[in-house]
Amino acid sequence: MTFLQVNLASQVCSHSMYAGIDTLVALGKMRQEAKMTADFLKMVNDTFDLLNGRAYGGSIHPLTKSTREVDRLDSLKEQAEQWHTKKKAVKSRPPCFEGLVQAINAVISLRVELVDNGPLKFMLTGRFNQDCLEKLFSQVRA
């Protein structure tokens, strides 16, 4: 059984990779079509950042009642809803694409419930992901 190596995926879908491809396209060292790949990598990187906020302040901002991150999440969700794969002229939508849209919907709903209509002033999205559970279980096992 093979496992996804998240660290490799996060390196490929990074801002550095986006900037490198974008620069090479601008310098004419890569074909113009590569710009779409660069834009996709930036969008995935931005989505990961928005879904992984762990501290108040810094480069990844928490979700509050009025932050541009909320608009960015909506925009990323709309774009992800359009994703599909194409094999032999047949379009399909892998479950991971739908899973990402559902995760974004959940974060948006939680922000409305906990921040807009609830007791919180901000929400750190990184506190909702599986890493926290893995840390807890590792502490329980120790």
Describe this structure in words.
The chain is mainly alpha-helical. It contains 6 helices and 2 strands, in the order H-H-H-H-E-E-H-H. It has a two-stranded antiparallel ribbon with strand order 1-2. The chain starts with 5 loop residues before the first helix and ends with a helix.
Q: Any descriptors?
A:
single chain, 142 residues, mainly alpha, two-stranded antiparallel sheet, 6 helices, 58% helix, 4% strand, globular
Structural class: mainly alpha
Instruction: Let me know the largest β-sheet.
Output: 2 strands, antiparallel
CA-CA gap between termini? 27 Å
Contiguous uncertain segments of 5+ residues: none
Mean pLDDT value: 82
So how many helices? 6
Computed CA radius of gyration, to the nearest angstrom = 18 Å
Overall 3D geometry?
globular
Approximately how much helix is present in the residues?
A: 55-70%
Strand content: under 5%
Order of helices and strands: HHHHEEHH
* Spatial ordering of strands, largest sheet: 1-2
> What is the β-strand count?
2
Characterize the quaternary organization of these chains.
single chain
Task: Give a nutshell description of this structure.
By secondary structure, this protein is mainly alpha-helical. It has helices at 6-12, 15-26, 34-50, 68-80, 95-116, 130-141; strands at 85-87, 90-92.
